[in-house]
Every structure is written in structure tokens, then in C-alpha cells.
Amino acid sequence: MAAQAPSVEVEPDIEASAVPCHPAFSNEFRYLPTVQYGEHPDSAYDSEVASYTTSIASTITNYRNENGRRYHAYKDGTCQKETERLDIMHKLTEVTLGGKLNLAPIPKDAKRILDIGTGTGIWAIEMGKLYVLRPRVCPVQNSPSLTNCKTLGDKFPDAEIIGNDFSPIQPHWVPPNVRFEVDDVEDEWTYHQPFDFIHCRFMGNAIHDWPKLHRRCFEHTKPGGWVEFIDLDINWVSPDGSLKEDSASKKFNNEFVRISREANVESCPGLYLEGWMKDAGFQNIHAERFVWPVGTWPKDKQLKEVGAWNYLQIMEGLEAFTYALFTRHLGYSKAEVEVICANIRKEMKDPSMHAMFYLHVAYGQVPETAAAS
Question: Is residue 273 packed enough to be buried (19+ CB in 10 Å), middle (13-18) or exposed (0-12)?
């Protein structure tokens, strides 16, 4: 199905036709949507963001130090501050999708679910809570019984959720139907049974061969099963031109995308998810695009909340985005990176800068006639 344009208000005084079209977009994506701007006194901006968000913390261990940040020893994995940002990203995505964990229509008889790049495991855990078989209290004997038991939220009993990641940062206490594996998804897959649903989220800058990953998901999903990819196009834009090309934020954004591609990783995979799914053989493909404002500048209440969480995750993760890439590939010193981050933070706190980028969701179905892996 054709991708649907984001439902945001368009201001007639801005020339949409002046915005260039990305070649990967259909005609429905030709023009940048614009949103109405709220009034934000400079001193109140951080307070407004804080009113939408709460602090989130993660407890993780066994990391090595680089540039004052602790990284997991297994294939240069996730630093501690980044794990906190990943949980914020989960909340941001949840708000964006209207409280849903996924958009794909998971089959009612689902038994096996795989979460690729599970990170802190929060998506797998939340999914496990929905699917876990819970004992009911017998009204006569006042004792637990599994007879005629329903799952929480009337979801699917007996479903096993597997979370895969190269960093073992997931908690030990999880629902009984959830388990985590330490592995690199780009290594050979060792699963012998296919999945009913595979979920892959925010793997930009982590995957070197996206078409191969899509093919593997196709091969390891049951006929009739679904696969869903959620990822970003991190190219910052502004509907009113308030994000200047010579700004620290835009310069950093452009350089980050360029360096990532030179390192053979794609920082904007959201743009290509639908095409990769088609090439892998999926059918009934649905693709949607969502606006992620940077900050609380939109008037729309839902976009304002999305923007608040997005502002928070960028503020929380700015060094995580920057240190490894800029020090390893460009030879920047830690002090130079800190100056870049300080300038970006200063611009982000300016409510007159109306920056945004896009979240893409694409999901598709393995044909019923496909041979099981």
C-alpha cells in the first residue's frame, strides 16, 4: 500500500513547492509538511520539555572507557548513557504510535516473536507482559488455576519473545515468556524454527547490509507471518527555513550522515525500508511516515509531546552520537567534540528554530505460499 503523508496542519504562507523531493519518496512525500508554531519564551523552553517528560535510568555493568564514556567490550557496544536514551526512545516511539508497540497485524495464533537489536529489552518485556499466561484465582477454592486462563489484555497465550542484541544490558527479572540472547544479527542466524513476527527498530548505523537483513527476516518468518521495521531519516529540516545551513546543528547533521556512509553504515535507513521489503519478497507492505519535531515548538498537542521526548533523547544522547564517530573517523579531540555539542545544545534551546525529522514504519507479510525456512 502506498505510504501515507503525515497528518499535520499546513500553513498556507509557506511555499511547500520550494522544498526538494527525495528520490526515494512517492509523490505523496514531495513536500515537507509544516506545523503551526507555539509561543515559547526562551527561559521557559526547558521547563516545558520537562513538563512532558520524566527521567529514566538504566543499571548496566562491565563496560570499557573511551572519551569518558563506558562501552561494552563485545564489538564496541552500548555506553551507559546510551542505554538511558534507548528507554527514552521507546517512550518517544510509543507516544508517536498512539501507545502501540507495533503496527503490523500480528496473527492471533502467534507462538514465536523475535526482537532484533532489542537494546535494553524494554520492547520485548512490554510485549511479554501482553502475551504472558497469567494464573487466575479460582473463586471457589481461592487458589491459582490455569483453567480457562486468559492472557493480560486478551493477547496470545504461549507466545515466546526472544530479544537479540550484542550487548547484554537487559534486566534479569523479565516475564517468563521472554528471553534474551547475546549475538550479532549480521552473523549467521542459528534459529531452527521460523517466527510469526519479527520486529526490528532503530538499527541505523548498526547494519552494514540492510538488504541481507531483510532477506533473512523473510526466510525466518512463517508463511503468513509479519515483519516490521521502524527507523529514522535523521536529515534535519525545517518547514520555515529557520534551521540554517550554516548552523552548528545542520553542519553536524550533514557531517554525521556523510561520515556514517563512508564507514559503510546507513544513518537514514527509514527512507529505504519499503523498497528493501519489496526486494526481499514481502507482500501487503504498508509504509507510514511520522514527524518528529525537535522540541515543543508545534502547536499541536500530540506533536508537542513527541517533540518534547525527541528533544530529551537528543540532549541525552548527543555525545553518544558524536564521540566515537568523530574521534575515530575525523580525528577530533574530546574537547573539540564537547564544543560542537555545546553549540548544538544552545541552538536546540532556541524556540525560534523549528527543526524536525522523520520516523518511518514499514511492515509486510511473508506470502502464504512461501516455503517455511
Answer: buried
Q: What angle do CA 94, 10, 12 make, to 5 degrees?
A: 170
Alpha helices in 97-204 (DSSP H): 122-131
Which residue bears the cell 497465550?
A: 157
Nearest one of 6, 105, 5, 54 to 303, comparing CA atoms: 6
What is the widest separation between alpha-carbon atoms in the chain?
Answer: 73
- Residues 207, 184: Cα–Cα separation, whole Å: 10
Rounded distance between C-alpha atoms, residue 365 and residue 225, angstroms: 6
pLDDT, position 138: 41
Q: Which residues pair with 230 in a beta bridge?
A: 201, 361
For residues 88-113, give the mean pLDDT.
93
| Distance of alpha carbon 346 from alpha carbon 365, whole angstroms | 44
279 residue type, one letter: D
Split at pLDDT 50, 70, 90, the class of 49 is low
Single-letter amino acid code for the residue at 62: N
Could you tell me if 355 and 244 are in contact, meaning their C-beta atoms sit under 8 angstroms apart?
no
Closest CA to 169 of 83, 92, 255: 83
Asked if 83 and 166 touch (Cβ cutoff 8 Å), the reply is no
Query: Is the Cβ–Cβ distance between 185 and 199 less than 8 Å?
Result: no
Does residue 259 surpass a pLDDT of 60? Answer: yes
- pTM (global) more than 0.90: no
Burial (CB < 10 A; 0-12, 13-18, 19+), residue 190, is exposed
Helices and strands per DSSP (H, E), number in the chain: 8, 11
Using alpha carbons, select from 192, 228, 114, 227 the residue that is nearest to residue 160: 114
Q: What share of the chain is helix, strand, coil (3-state, %, to 5)?
A: 35, 20, 45
One-letter identity of residue 261: R
Helix axes 334-348, 248-262, angle to 10 degrees: 130
Q: What is the DSSP string of 300-330?
A: SHHHHHHHHHHHHHHHHHHHHHHHHHHHHHS
Contact indicator for 66, 323 with CB cutoff of 8 Å: yes
Q: Where are the beta strands (DSSP E) in the chain?
A: 63-66, 69-72, 112-116, 136-137, 144-145, 160-165, 178-182, 195-201, 221-237, 283-293, 356-365
